[in-house]
Amino acid sequence: MAKLEAASDVDLYVGSSAISREELLRRVKGVDAIVCLLTEAIDAAVLDAAGPQLRIVANVAVGYNNVDVAACRARGIAVTNTPDVLTNACADFTWGLILTITRRLGEGERVVRAGKWGGWALDYMLGMELRGKQLGLVGVGRIGGAVAAKAPAFGMTVAYADQKVADISDATQMPLDRLLATSDIVSLHVPMTPETKHLIDQKALTKMKRTAYLINTSRGPVVDEAALAWALKERLIAGAALDVYEKEPEIHRDLMSLENVLLIPHLASATTETRTAMADLAVSNAIAVLDGRPPVTPVP
Ligand code: GLV
Predict the structure, then answer these.
(1) Tell me, what's the pLDDT at 200?
(2) Which of 50, 73, 99, 284, CA to CA, is 20 to 30 A from 43?
(3) What is the CATH number of the domain that holds 278?
(4) Is 210 a known active-site residue?
(5) Do 186 and 73 fall within a single domain?
(6) Dihedral, CA of residue 87, residue 91, residue 93 and residue 99, to nearest 10
């Protein structure tokens, strides 16, 4: 805020939840820069409401599916995101989800808090060991690559499905179908685009091993939530750990009652260090463009 205030007048929205659409449309009028969160849809209507002086939309997130990039480009408005600064936090977090779901930590904690733990038993709440298993990454950009880099620490082999060949040692590139059929953990690291919407649908889920787990830290709509709830209920896969949802903050009601799914409220980048760095980068982007310099991290 200090950096922004030194560079320009600032209209700061403060609220316990995301700004309403009406308020957003009203408050963007006449601004030169918008620093926004993934909870705001920055579409043509918002750009029109802002006016022709708008020069940059600086998203405080690496994913930018909430911004209509084509509409911005058509108006000569720069769009930036916050890559790199959140890679490590998101990769650590992905491993947190993998360990939590395979070792049933969420389920275990629910039992303890409900006062239902009857004591240690040899065969109680057994999970799956990671050593010797295959981690299948769908998408190996910065975050997928960082997740892969930590796999040897857990004794896992890495497979990936991506259009490009990744620079990851000892990782096997394979088509998505084969990856789904052979992986013990399938972790999604693709951006949200029309091509990746419901990439993991009923058909994809039926290809997975019954003993496998699905991890989603990308964007909710990459997974068909209703199909996932069905697959989990039918035990077609062993479990899922989700950080993102199709209609955040809503979660498909069938998922809420299942024990074999871990439901986390979109926290992958949520460390003090990373969120500070993300905000700082978005501010640097806005200031650069307001000063007539190129943005630091324009979206590709
Ligand atoms: C968070 O989901 C991000 O895209 O940064």
Answers:
(1) 99
(2) 284
(3) 3.40.50.720
(4) no
(5) no
(6) 180
